[in-house]
User: Fold these one by one.
Assistant:
Number 1:
Amino acid sequence: MRRSNLPAESTRFVGREDEHRDLERMLSEFRVVTVTGVGGVGKSRLARHTAATVEKRYCHGVRLAELATLRDPGLLDHTLLDALGLTDHTSRPPREVLVEQLAERRLLLVLDGFEHLVDACGPLVRELLRRAPGLTVLAAGRRPLRVDGEAVLTLAPMADGDAVRLFTDRAEAAVPGFRAEDPSAVTELCRRLDGIPLALELAAGRLPALTVRQVLHRLDDRFRLLTGGKRGELPRHRTLRTAIGWSHELCTPEERLLWARLSVFAGPFELDAVEYVCACPALPADRVLDVLAELLAQSVVRREDGPAGPRYRMLDTVAAYGAEWLEALGETGRLRRRHRDWHVGLATAYEADWFGARQAEVAACADSALPDLRAALELCLAEPDQAHLAQYLAGTLWFHWVGCGRLAEGRHWLDRALAVESGHDTARLKALWVLAHVAILQGDAVAAVSALHACGEGAARSGDALAAAYTTHRTGCLALISDDMPRAEELLGRALSSYRELGELNSNVLMGQVELAMAKVFLGDLESAVSLCQEVREVCEEHGERWTRAYALYVLAYAAWTRGEHGRARRLLGECVVIDHTFRDLVGLVLAVELLALVTASEGDPAEAAVLQGAAASMWEAVGLPLFGSGNFGAPRALCEARTVELLGLERHRACVAEGRGLTQEATVERALAGRERPAAESEAEAGPEGTPARRPDGRRTAPDTRKPAGSPAGKGGEAAG
């Protein structure tokens, strides 16, 4: 787990010295601290800035969970797991996983924008604090969490001096070389805006077009009474609403329309999405960029740069104002449907691009789009006649659930989508085989069998040959981890034949070929397994596919180990670790670490091998049943453990395993990769003199090293170890 996921501060932190010191002190005295205050007063900025400055107090760092865009309380636990950088492939309740993973960590968890979820957040925080003694929670919202032991810092608007400093700083950013010709006008403007940072930044965003005096005049004359808010509202709430309304009133009709339409986005959005969702006769697509640029200049929209590239976002308060205008225009339903249609199409494009050179980019983009994909799924499920779209979307995102470490959330959406009768066989059957895939990886064989049975019956009834092929494939995968190798070999081979007949080629198909290779390995046919995986490797390299390639390299590394080629096995596994970690695929990562431990022991370093085994054991807790409960998958671990205990002695072996169990995932990856360039020492127990048989992980001898791999089904040969 990375020490921090706090975003870099894009502008200078100005003022708030006293509040900053108070918050630092409170975090040293209390385990839960909540910063409250009116919208736009700077709660989030102060909390994040302070969290960054106290990070060193927490040996496991700081993690930020942004909750403002989350609407479904049922996803709260999933969102926290994601924010914590934790991947869980099991079918256990996510709350159980959270508690287990945090129990031994000293960490600061920042909850930002929780107020609409306070009924769910309060009990969650209470339970986490009770069961994770090293956890501290810093929350930022418009109301307290109301949990025992909570300290509350109510953030007031900025003092006059700080407000002037903030306005001047943002004005200099908006107008390089800015100098206030009339300092008294600046002071008066800051006073009229009640020192609310969001209002000050919106005002500064107007300076390229207006002078300070003009801004003040407009605020005084025309907008003093603008949308003063609901009766009984606090004056500062009215001030903020007035400031946002004032900024809105200064916009052109095109800018106001885009502002309102942008409110349908739940998270960061890209230009292409804006052009599709928000364009209309009054705002042509070729005008969207220019209008968006104006909203950026006015601080209504902000730009964010991340792994997915440049994205745009509106602050929650600003978006809420736009949503009211959209509702007043009577366009909310139509815009939400356009938003849904875009994201259904986006998921379709992502699925196609997953099998290609853009795979890593797709993973990052899908992560960025997740709040909006969730919103699209929610809308599909809210409209009974759109249930087939929910099933289609949940199934199409299989690559995100399976390939990017989001099995638990995928299970959540698939279960919900399949609970509704859609009347569309194709969408339902896809959701069923994807659900089976997810359930298999979670170790939930009962759910997998049920989904596969329903999918098989539905495919036969509707004549859907592709769904039938996927059903056969996943049934073979279930046989593989259940140690029924003859059945796995037969089913996986039959599925691959069906794929070839249907012209189906993608990451799932190639993974089926790797799974067939694994079955052949366990049946003792190493040459055929190597040939199959070498072909997968070549196809992946041709298409730029990396995720499935990692699994093929895992099998090739196994083959290299059996031949005593430890250096090659380590290099192949190092590449596996890098790829699996990049995609957050914990199943692939833990399998690679397990085999790397055996390679390390074979190289003559039993202590490091035991540390890696301990780290793998810790990771399996987030995957599910260790090594799937399979004797075949467990053979490398059993052999490695026997060797290291013999060489280290039981007491030292236990100490090394305990050290590994204490490693974070990030530290495990660093440790695994640190040895990639180590010399590959031959182990006498592993491989004897040239020409003598090497050992399989179950202790049996393999054929001598002189053999060559058999040709692949496509007629291609391959190297013995890749």
Note: The radius of gyration is 29 Å.
Number 2:
Amino acid sequence: MPRINLGSWARNAVDWLQSHLSWLFDAVSTVLTGMYDGVHAVLSAPDALLMAGILAVVAWWLRGLLAAVLAFAGLALIDSFRLWDQATSTLSLILVASVITLVLAVPLGIWAARDQKVSKALRPVLDVMQTMPAFVYLIPGVMFFSIGPMPGLIATIVFSMPPGVRMTELGIRQVDGELVEAARAFGTTPRDTLLRVQLPLALPTIMAGVNQVIMLALSMVVIAGMAGAGGLGEAVYSAVTQVDIGAGVESGLAVVVLAMYLDRMTGALGTRVSPLGRRGAAKAASPARSAAFLRYRPGTAVATVGVVVLALVAGGMHLVRGGDRESVAAGKDVGQGKAVKIGYFPWDEAVASTYLWQNVLEARGYRPEVKQLDPGPLYTALAQGQMDVQFDSWLPTTHKQYWDRYGGKLSDLGSWYGPTSLELTVPSYMKDVNSLEDLKGKSGEFGGKIVGIEASAGMMGKLNGNVLKDYGLDGEYKVVSSSTSTMLAELDRAMKKKEPIVTTLWSPHWAYGTYDLKKLKDPKGAWGKGEELHAIGKKDFAKDFPRIAEWVKGFKMSEKDLASLEAEIQKGGKGHEKDSARRWLDARPGLLDKLAPVTS
């Protein structure tokens, strides 16, 4: 059967939409971004514990004293993890996405319940929306709206809508037909029959759909962290890509706390607003008296007063709180608080150079904002002007695919390190493997696999497309895609057990100073010549940031300096990269003025 080029058709459709409907995407982005920013401003304005108190009062009103205490404890735990800002970002995304989803889903569900043809037409569409892998929604989201909250919002709305539509339709269809007929017999209009009979009786089922919408929204918002949506999703993604168990557990628990809070509150809200739910809750609670105070729920007026009082206290604290921008020495404040968006992917030299420049720019009065992304979304964001600069473009080979696609929309700020080298590496105790040629016939010894890095890296394409074929290894070895941190974790595990392993690696890299490794020789030159590490900016970077462009174009690092900076960051541990880079910079008097010279 001939191949159906559905992928190319989809790509052409996206290109056409970008060319002809960019105005529509800009309008949607403006509206949704405004909604998100407004909700986030409200949630993040109060002190963390005051906001936790407000949410605890809501839990007290909906479920009782015990629920309020547990809610406050869980939210305080998030604050203790130093993840409160990320949690409020995630909660903002969930609330905005859920509201928009329900505004669309409930009317569609009502329409489907009242018209069988609409129901049949919607069913396959909802099947596709619900079963399509969630990651796929991020691709058009990034293409149309670049990185940030917007792709996450759009993907979340699409992914979480099906249960809202289906549960609304199911709830209305389950209403006893005799009750509907009785309402019509008494002359009730179709509109009043819907509003006064069907919707009130269907409300428990509809609220179950609301609950599912919010839960799916939470799961999708976490996935959207891959596209720079921020919040807990970004924290989870960062922990996964860096194999950081501690950060993964903390950010994962924060997601669990939010999920449990939203699940219990929406469930209790469904009981509160439904006549049938209130009746059932009253019957269930009436026999038990021993712990009645734990289930005591204040009236709406009392709860409202509690929320208002805490909000006023939070507002007063916000007003008296002074600005938090660090002072900069006179004559050094070149940036005057101007924001600079720096992107990076979790490669060691990228982390090192990014956090070095974050410290340098802060010392010069700028406000650098650092965000971790995969190479694909990062280059897309640079091309669309949503990010300003990144410091780890491997040219001309590794990142060639991105430069070929976006080169006309980017600016090359020059090479700051090189030449590099790409290689396959084995532990030194593998005495009989010294060259790529020596891998032939030894796949059983290595489990038939080569441990690789991110599939999007150009190195992986060159390995699969050139290196394995040139040495006759393409049918013998399978290249396992993972992440840089996963590859290093696998290397560490194998070396501690003295097991055979072959991995991708490159120079410079701190692993050569940490482990006893040897680079496999490449007598056929399949890897090609060494590359240069470039700083890449958006197209108008030099126009928007002329001083930074001037500094970056003069930026150079030796292998010794880069290796020591990477080692300092490794020593400082995960989550302390900025402080580690600052220590390294402070230990070299005069380097700051060399990297970013200013006239007094």
Note: Residues 113 and 421 are 63 Å apart (CA to CA).
Number 3:
Amino acid sequence: MSLWSRAFSVEELDDRTWLELMPWLDRYGSARTAALTALAPTPAWWESQSPAQTAAETRIPELCAELSRIYVTDHPELRFADGLIRTVEVVVDALDLGMSAATIVARLPHAPTTAELFSRSPADLFDVRGADSDAVYEIVCAALVLTVLRDPATLVPEESAAPVPALALLVDDLAAVARWQTLCGQRDRPLLSVGLGAGAPEEIQEAVARIGAVAARDLPVGVPADPVAELADYVASLPAAERETLRRRIHDEGDVDVSQPSTFPFGTAAGDFLAVLRTDVRPVASFDRIVRDRPVLAQVVPGLDAPLWKVLDRLDDRCTVADGWIAVPDLAEAQKQTRALLGEFESANAVVQPAEVTAIWHLPADEFESWLTHCGATMFDGRILTPQDTVAGRAAQILEVVGDPLSVETLVARMDANIDIHSVVEELSDDDRFTVTEDDGLWGLLEWETDPVTAVGRRIARLVDGAAGSIELDKVAEALVQRFSISDASARIFAASGDFEVVDECVRRRRRTHVPALPPERTKRLYRLDEHWRLRIPVTRDHMRGAEVPLPSAVAGIVGCDPGAEKVLKSRLGPQILRWTGPIPHLASVRRYLDEIGIDEYGELFFEFRSDGRFDVLPLRTFASNADPLRKALALIGYTTPEVVPEEGIAAAFATAIGLTGETRPRRILSAYRARHEAEVVSLLESAWVRIPSGQDRPRS
């Protein structure tokens, strides 16, 4: 008898109450009993009914599947032997588990029967090598179903059960990867790579070589299907009325609702094509260039009277065509990702050197600059200036790029804005980033005096980029000696260190394949609380669907993940993979956490990272609009119970969160958050700490 193939009769199910069979339900707690109540029509069914009685109104396997999610979420450390009443041992093959779940159970020691399984908890299963959340939920569900059976001994293994589940799973996974590589045009790329230590015998070396030679071409994977033909066949199969409604939706005609999101599932020709297209586009590309590369996008779909690109744009909300761009999933999200990427390279004054970005983001030069303009960035003397909220912020950018002190008149002229000079002087005087000479009134950046290494590096960057990427070492050394009054030997050391290298007596940038690893203190929306860091992110539709989540490089540094590597983090819902195998780090799907905490698209949440490799997802604490702004700001920097922070410790909490440990002066703290471009936090801090004399905002010290 399979646990999943049919409904259970009354005779097969236990007549004791659910609570007797599953004592963990008594530990569930009243705060979330609504979730239990929703699973069956009878109120408090787990207390008043037996599984045999509940089966009359609810399918038991489906009910146990929902209970398994509650068990895993609320009692991850509870052993099945402590949470369930079941003493009869059953061979694990009789549980009818899928290949992934069966492989996890098989990796437990002494696993032929369920005795070993019942000695474990969901957390133990998540710790098994190769475990994933779906497989763990399936195992827990099997344990629950086993518990409600009157006589589990009647279970027998299916004849088709694989003798070695891991091998069957490996074949299935290889086939899936081979299909994907075929779709991506990489049929000759190896599917497997086996590391081999020194000293292995020749026979093993040859075996490893054969394994490494297996590619998608060796497996029976068909060529990608034609998405236009598939869509044409689908449209032709529709009734005339439905076909017309679909056509009108694509052409935005009449009162047809075009806002309903939909997707072409992976495994269909259209879904496969779109999945591959997303890897080419992510996050954005010129529409004309992509159509040239993939001319099938311009083919008209019969029956819909529209090219394929328009059908995909109208019917699948994971891809958007607008304003001459094609974006994944849409322009707004592409802009967010672009700003996040620029943030990995921007200086403390939000200046970005384009050559660093284009080294890892391979957009054509004209396309790159046009997209930056679309995102609101400004080009100034060959540098990218990200948007600023204040005049002082833009002035700091101009000074950083120019690299020399300027008079206020020249500075305002270079800013190319109609600004009153006296108000500029007043704002710069009130900002700790600036200095001014008493004799000639030239304005400069304090960091030129306090951080000469950074200033020298920026001057080298200007020289290298101004010479199309390579400049003679002698010219660099001469320029540095003149500007910074350093020795020729020191200048040559600077030219061959950090982001630069000397090749054939010329200075050039070091070749990058990844973004630089920034310190957490300089990373926007990343805050330290005690021994852990919390990153605030907005939830997108892609997150809800299970897409990977891009992360700041600082997060990879916190958990010890180097460029080119991946790290498996531990969490209450099982292993969480962080990869830095591309230009920027990515976190594997967090959909199961979103489901567990009940957060929706457009909400905000926190990713929590600990140096010991633990990971968690937490909701953002919300407050009423008229609540204390400091408490609301504490919630934005990661405090889940900001009301318990003592009044005298609030300033220190804000300081510690961004690396200003020991600082308590509101003015300095506010200035630091402004420098990190934390607009939401700054607004709340200003409303609490800033008074308004003479029409000017000034923070209290």
Note: The first helix runs from residue 18 to 21.
Number 4:
Amino acid sequence: MASNSSMVTNSIEDYNKAYKAGKKEYQSRLMRGELPTLAVLDEILPPKGSYSEIPLGLVQIPADQIVGTRTGGRSSAFASNFMPILRSNTEFASKWKSLCTSHQNEGIRDPIKVYEYMNKFYVEEGNKRVSVLKYFDAVAIPGYVTRILPPRTTEKENRIYYEFVDFYSLSGINYIWFSKLGSFAKLQAAVGKAPGEMWTDDDKLNFSSVYNRFAAEFEAKGGKKLSITTGDAFLAFIGVYGYDSLADKTTNELKDLVLKSWEEYTLRQEEDEIDLKMNPTEEKAPLLNRLLPLSSQKLKIAFIYEKTPESSAWTYAHELGRLHLEQTFPDEVNTVYYDSVTRDNVEEVIGEAITSGCNIVFTTTPIQVQASVKAAIAHPNVKILNCSLNTSHRYIRNYYARMHEAKFLMGAIAGAMTENDRLGYLADYPILGSIANINAFALGAKMINPRAKVYLEWTSKKGINAMENLKKNQVSIISGKDMVIPEEASRFFGLYSVEYEQKEKDDSAEENRNLPDDSAKDAEMKVRNLAMPVWHWGKFYERLIRTIMDGTWKYDDNTAAKKAINYWWGMSAGVIDVICSQNLPIGTKRLVDLLKSTILSGEFNPFSGVLYSQKGIIQDDPDRRMTPEEIVTMDWLAENVIGDIPKMEELQEEAKPVTAQQGVEENKPVV
């Protein structure tokens, strides 16, 4: 009897505490001009007939995502946090207290009935059960869920929701949410799942453990005060440290890493996360900084190469840049390089470089960005830069060059020189920047020759012979690899023209003319180089190092606020150019010089005016220029390009890591 009396007393105390919490929330929201009671689903649903209802069965519902009631009948009994606001002498209060006692004795077992709309839950049956369980800080509440699926729209929130619906169909996970498009697909990839791959029960359990551990530390440090979701922060965290490694972290290790990488989360609050530096900073450092440089010791700079200069034209170009630094700053700079660095040992190699005294590290491929960020967080006094485009990290800086400016000029040359209007373009990886290069080439060709068609071939695509395909189409001028390594005795680089000659065959000439495919196979090519795009990485590195030496490096950081810094310099900075061959007619050279001068002065942008893609109009304003961000993230092909952008599954294995890191967004609607 005393025990029952004690229970009654406790339930009265609990109701009074819940009532106070409800009134406090009610008044607080009222003062802010917000709805103080529960949201009502019937009041926010789209018109009847425009949505569908899908039963999901019995689901564990995250308690903090239960935000309202289906109808307005019970809305006024609760504050918006589901705490009661009716006095303790009401019938409602008596039922609440009884439920409270029942929960303390045996637990509330009966599932509630709810509707899910835009991943928020609205109670049809069980409002008081939700109130009691929320009072006792329940994490999840079992309930029978009916999903209300709204019509698709182009609004961001709607698009994110449909991405969630696809993710939920694979994982059954409803407790993580993102504020940016594409995040659910990134999470699917980050946990090691292929697109469309179902999650096992073990996958779900492991994810729940890892995510909840992170969420507890993130929110304990004040993560709820940020404008991003916990899911946004989690995706940023595993983007740096990897998903699989989190399970092995102790609580103290996890706390330390969450705190050290805090700027990665604050960065996600920015609508535009990246501060794209189109030209070198012209800000002058104070006189004292110029007289007394920030670094009195000699700079030691490490270059991290994925391949060797002897086997890779890309690595060779950066190696020329490193040698340029040593020649330009013989007394101030010492450089070292590490080649053949794989994804498996890149962290170890960067650590070795830092241990040896390097205070600046350049990692030269996009697949090294994750290791770069981890090293930068662990060594805040070391400046680390990664050669990639459109990468949003606060602890490192990224750099790339506007090669599309040179490709536009080469396209103009090709359009002027072709005799059959058939141009070829050999591309390597379908990554950010490469699509802009292709389109710039196509637009340059079309400006000079409206009939020009660009046959696009991907050298990284499985099961094709790119050159053979171009031969079959009798392409006369080809844009190939940007440069070759010294040991490779080849003229197949830059922009070159080809002439096909027939080998002698036993068949008659008339029969040969009727077999175009065989003719292409048997043809020999005469190659004549016309132009070559140049990456002046030496000038790029020189200008970056000068900003560190004279103290102007910090001005980029100050102007960027909390954004990631990406350097994307072009012809105006002297880091990109086109070298013309003596084989070009004088008139064509003058045309190139004229177009180059307009790009250098900023008078002309290759992506300006009315633009058409293969699928329709992209830009209909004759006076508009595409923004740098639109150029960087371009995922469409110009109307005079014959070809497509390959999917991940179509690529060779060696192309997949960099494409996964920097690939263009697939299936994005044309705007």
Note: The longest strand covers residues 523-535.
